[in-house]
Amino acid sequence: MVYLYHLKRPIMIGRIIETGLLKGAMQSHESEMIAVIGRRRVGKTYLIKNVCSRQISFYMTGMQNGLKEEQLFNFAQKLQEYNKKKKRTLTIPATWAEAFLLLTQQLQQTVTPYKKVIFFDELPWLATRKSGFVEALGYFWNNWASTANVVLVICGSAASWMMDHVVNQKGSLHNRVTQLIKLEPFTLSETEEFLKSKKIALDKYQVAQIYMAMGGIPHYLNAVAAGETAIQNIGRICFTKTGLLRNEFNNLYEALFEHHQNHIAVITALASKWKGLTRSEIIKLSPFTNGGGLTKVLQELETSSFISTYIPFGKKSRETLYRLTDEYSLFYLKFIKVQTDYKAGTWLQITKTANYIAWSGYAFESLCLKHITGIKKALGIPGVYSTESSFMVRGTTAAKGIQIDLLIDREDRAITICEMKFTTGTFILTKEYANKLREKREIFKIATGTKKQLFIALISTYGLQHNQYSLGLIDQVITLDELY
What we know:
The protein has 484 residues and is an alpha/beta fold. The chain folds into four domains: 182 residues, Rossmann fold; 83 residues, no CATH class; 86 residues, Orthogonal Bundle (Arc Repressor Mutant, subunit A); 113 residues, Trna Endonuclease, Chain: A, domain 1, CATH 3.40.1350. It is built from 20 helices and 16 strands. The strands form five sheets. It has a five-stranded parallel beta sheet with strand order 4-5-6-3-7, sandwiched between helices. It has a five-stranded mixed beta sheet with strand order 10-11-12-14-16, sandwiched between helices. Strands 1-2 form a two-stranded antiparallel sheet. The longest helix is centred in the last third of the chain and has 18 residues. The protein is elongated.
């Protein structure tokens, strides 16, 4: 989320629902515990500080890899900072139980016309092993905060940890969270609006290129500069020695996961196949055995929005596909990690390779999957219930195989087969390609035995140049503009 200031009135970009939930909590007449989760760098702290800044009576953030004693020292400093009496003697608590007692006493003495907000950021870093933090937090809430008409905001980038140790905890915090906010990356339209707020004028194609490389992560997008094309920006941010995203990858996973090398191993395996991998395929490409360790890693990666799961059309849950859907992670593994020569024009040269063409096709497909709402609206079925999936029939010596990356199975007895193409101009359908599409539709119909109406929709950057091959075959055309 970003605020622009004009005549002292904030203009908000995105985060409308999340802002409403926070404001509602601050205006209610009961205590509220708000848990905010989301991928690192997605703007959680920025959101909370901007919405709640006037009412924050205490705020502290955890120190990555900090010892219990260091965290308590930082707590004492923050407590003194918010103490209106400004005591000179710094009282460092020995335990978190003592720390929360001091906090309770100070908050009871704090007089404010607003509902008090207590904000703990990066909670997983504060709650070091055997530190007693979570237990003390639970006692603080149950013994005082829950009846004191305050808002307790707890935030963490390690989303899976937050779910396990706070939201779904069976101990003192069980069922205490009154609102759960999961902050997602910006959409395409929000990304465009964010860049415009920085006086960066890029057309939708250029914005999409940037999005495909780094996703809708505000911290990354903040590095985009005006007066540069998408290629220039990506080159500077990713392929220079001081570029923001050159060394972000390992730092990102290390900050989120305790045994982050396991998570990187899974991410690396998923990056090797565009269409996704089954659990058994991941095991073959990573150091895991078919045990609980992999299950936990997959859950943590999905909760943190790095990967997504898809059940192919007509398949069962055991055939679930795991796909790498974090744009930056894929881009790093495909291009940044393997690049050894960092000089001007590196990315421009890469864009002329077959590897780039393959990546851009997959990245555009991933972009489309994240903007299903825009696709359905363009198809004229925004209110029709549907499920989205992929479909594959493996080829044999006797029959051809097919791969469909996006099927929209609709409740109005129709299925839309989506063909996605990222091109630099209007897509031209050739006779050969038209025959492949007809063949794909026919094989799908026979293999599934569906009685539903089948439509073919083309989703491409600049639409379709209609010719004799597209007539009667392509039912609908969706352009990049309609995903915004």
